[in-house]
Specification:
Blueprint (H helix, E strand, L loop, with lengths): L19 H21 L5 E6 L21 H22 L3 E6 L8 H5 L2 H15 L6 H13 L19 H8 L33 E4 L10 H7 L2 H13 L2
Parallel strand pairs: 1-2, 2-3
Helix pairs in contact: 1-2, 1-8, 2-8
Length: 250
Amino acid sequence: MSPGFLSLAGRDETSEGLDTLLTVRYYARALFVARLLPLLHNSPCARVIFILAAGTESAIFPDDLELKYHYSSLNCARVAPTMTSLFCEEAAARNPGVAFVHAYPGVVKTAILKTAFWSRLGWLLECTLIPLMTPFMVDLEEVGERSVFYATSARYPARDAPADGASTSTSTARQEATAAWDRESKKVPGIPLPDGLNVAKSAGNNGHVGGGAYLLDWNGESKEHKTMAGYRKEGMGIKVWEHTYEIIER
């Protein structure tokens, strides 16, 4: 999932009282996950891929997660990735048969500047900034290829992914047994890894491989901001999860 847009227009509320920008970047994606989880549980290789900004997590407002009282475009840009990462980790913990990936695609060459600002300003930015930034940008085609890799490779398995690709059992005994697996030596669902490429380290979970939640940089390597460690200690993932489902049920 990669919906998004740029806006400097200030808070623009939907009929549910949510900011449009934050809704597109975060709540809409979470809604898709909530509605499709029953189907994902029946898949032998279930993955949820968030394309946003893993590794840029920063401070959020625990008592104002929907930014009613702390809204700015900058705060929205900070809060959405952080809540996405926390949501992924909590979702993976609650759904051990599904893998959750939050990936930063890099600076992608798109036409977003043309649609984000007044037409003439957008045209000016497109003609001046894009040529200068092109050597440092990632092509859409490459981003698409990497996204397919995240969705299909055995490098990013669910925490409770069975070695034979069969349906997942969620019994306590099975979870305890699965936690002891060495993911680098087990065959997990997905396209087999080539020599030299190992199962990725998961977010949280003491950096164990194959933990089910993955925060990735533009090159598909595990990366997260130091802010995440503090939020895990505070149980912020649970708070974000509960808040998100309260919003979904409005």
